[in-house]
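User: Small ask, check this?
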Amino acid sequence: MSVPGRSRKKRVIAATVFTGVLMSAGWVGTMPGASRVPQSLPASFAFQGVEGSATFRLNRHGRTLVILFNSTCGHCANEFDELEAHVDRLQNTRLYLFTTEHALNAQWMSRWPRLRGSDQVTWGVIQPAKRDRYFGVSVTPALFLYDRNGRLLQSWRGETKHEVLLDGGARASGSACASAPAESGPCTIPPLVLSPASRPPIDIRPQQLQPGR
């Protein structure tokens, strides 16, 4: 015969262990409402860049990819290894790499010379309150892809292969122009194209964030 109290305790322990495993893998947010990702991003906002005060600006001729990271996050380092090798394949995409740490860690950043020296990539520090307001998550790495008007096309948390970013952008491009306001002019967002030099397909894709849930 089972004992109700003992059975309940086992279920609680199992749930706690399972959640801990997911969080260590970067699959679960670390704050209440971590899956409530805002549907849009302002055209511009201030942040602290490598050389002082800077301004975030949407890529009006393509897409904008924002990545939240932390220099103590091993999964973030793996994500940057992936981007370092394939950043040139993210055509028509502007990258902003944001942390909420007190300052950028130049020595840590030097591990990725292509990301550090690319005109396509901007590193910066944003305040936690701004991170929560604009992105709605605290887990790292977290990735957000926007169209030229700041509409969220897709988002991911956890390590994300560049093929997934390309595929996500390509699938979202069909609806991107439909939502573009008339005053913004003709919608000419170039499609993201996966070149023939593709890496082998991956078996597991990271969990996607579900906006508004």
